[in-house]
Amino acid sequence: MEILAYGVQADEKPLLEAAFAGRHEVRCLEVFLNADTAPLAAEHEIVSTSVNAQLDATTLRILAKGGTRMIAQRSTGFNNIDLDVAGELGFTISRVSFYSPYAVAEFAWTLALAVNRRIVRAAGRTREFDFRLDGLMGLDVHGMTVGVIGTGKIGECFARIAHGFGTRLLGWDIAENPVCRDQLGMEYASLDRLLAESDVVSLHVPLLADTHHLIDETALGRMKPSAILINSSRGGLVDSRALVEALRAGRLRGVGLDVYEEETGLFFFDKSLEGVTDDTLARLMTFPQVLVTSHQAYFTSTAVGQIIATTVANVDDYLAGRRSENTLVPKS
């Protein structure tokens, strides 16, 4: 059987091909799955997609008409999939419910440290042999209050690193993580209090209806003007326009964004020659204390290897008629 894999990065392709070797042929495409590219999947029973696939009703119906019956998404998030329509059309949909949480947690701290110590500006200067320190003064992380919004596997890893720095930990989640609370000394607090007291705020919750624009104008207004905001989870957690206005007002010491709410069609593409027409993203990137990366927090060989291994297992489960914790559709 030939499996069609959409949105495959150059570094990911050999790993994906090796994982399926001797089992199934895999045809890798750089393009992402959407209504325009869905016809390419005709006569492919199984397709695999990346996090930026647009699996809305239109795309799903095109896939179903072409004979696709199983979609193996190579990511944890699934807010991009219309699960109700997928169920109506008889699809099997799987995801990767778990992969190395260290990859994302470590990258979140990479962003936090980079914006705090002005690493990008410093590197740009020294490449031009400008070795001045003007404007590069940072703050000690030791002794800071760090707010962790979402204390699941990734949030816990982020908190462990913060604990190693010698910080005070505040957490917010629908359920307390006993490891964070009992071993790391995290104090759970209301979201308002966490925002008001934290020097670093890092987001580690999924994008759901209740968390969309969790960090909005009101939330940003509650944060310290000297705070650092980090988002390595999902772009829609932050109201980007409100963030621009907060920065224009001189608020926030630093912002590190690995995700952006309108990243589809931008991230993972080379836009250097044609430019970007998204005014909000362009404005964000003009602020010297803002660092934007292209959804790469998960992109380590360890994490990608685990994602691919789980994807292979999900395909095996589908072909054997089995369900697992990774099965989103059918729901039972």
From TrEMBL:
Family of the protein in this entry: Belongs to the D-isomer specific 2-hydroxyacid dehydrogenase family.
Species per Swiss-Prot/TrEMBL record: Streptacidiphilus fuscans
D-isomer specific 2-hydroxyacid dehydrogenase catalytic domain mapped to chain residues: 8-327
Sequence intervals crossing the membrane: none
Name of the protein in its database record: 2-hydroxyacid dehydrogenase
Keyword entries, A-Z: NAD, Oxidoreductase
Start and end residues of each D-isomer specific 2-hydroxyacid dehydrogenase NAD-binding domain: 110-297
One GO MF term attached to the UniProt entry: NAD binding
Top-rank taxon: Bacteria
